[in-house]
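I need you to check the entry underneath: sequence plus fold tokens. Let me know what the token row says about the fold.

>
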Amino acid sequence: MQTFHAKPVPWPDTAGELRARVRALVSEHFAQQGDAADPAKRANSWAHPDPAFSRKLGEAGLIGMVWPKEYGGHERSSLERYVVLEELLALGAPVGAHWIADRQTGGMILRYGSEEAKRQWVPGMARGELFACIGLSEPGAGSDLASVRTTARRKGDRWVIDGQKVWTTNAHFAHLMIALVRSEEGSERNAGLSQFVISMDAPGVTVKPIIDLTGGHDFNEVWFDNVELPETALAGTEGQGWAQATAELSLERSGPERYLSSTALLIELIRAVGPDASDEVKALVGRLTAEMWTLRQMSASVAARLAEGDDPALEATMVKDLGNTYEQAMPGLVQAAVELDLAGGDPLARVLGYLLQVSPSFSLRGGTREILKGIIARGLGLR
């Protein structure tokens, strides 16, 4: 039976300098924006877009850190990038605009895309100027990714895309989408699928918002009506889209964002209760801190293995499942431990009220808990 494969993480010597740079940059941005006093804006920060801040990170060389310099990257190590990411999330920086492009889309294009696509998209991503979304989920399919019905058919030397995607994060301001579509007529499940790079301003692409219960607009529906693409829009090998897309999920599921979405709440809890907290609250703080540290070690271990060229898909799925369980449970645990008027304006009440509303979605993005547990069970030989 395979279990979680972990080993000591070789943190880079540059970690201290990188953390100091990120802290200075974020502090300056918050001071300019006047957002530093609002902890609700620091919770779940990787879902909060701020294009101006993304451009600042791009100028500082903190996007596309591991990409080749030829395409605007900086050829830093994966663990240096990890240090920057966890610092940004711990500080609550508004990184949502470029997050998907930096986490997986840029790397996917560099690995599978045509030379034309690499030069068209990747340098702008590294500058924090071009943003991406991912076209996976479809209506009526739930979390069954293999139930793709959006089609790609050949028309001379071009491809024509028809269909619909749903729950597409950031499609309303993204410049491009990596879409998984059915390119082989009559194929079923995970056979006959391909990935395409689709410009969001292409004729026939329509985006409509899905507004959540907080009034937030992260999700969207996207329609493709006879969208014509050049041959170079095909990413990778025709028919290999399933293998390509599932390989990317290790990047999507294992990062520090999978356990740091509620960090602002833990910080505000510690500030609010101070050293004279009750034994119950002290125990809760200790428990939450210990769990966070364990998840950090697991997540960083996956990052180190990815840097070595391994494919820790099972471990990445475990991190996502355990991390989502942790960050989703935290608001309810804090609410039960501390008497608090959620209508009040103090920082702890603001961040708690916000997370009580949005945290149910944490176990949906990147794969539902039920799907993840099935993947883990197969990986452990339990089914």
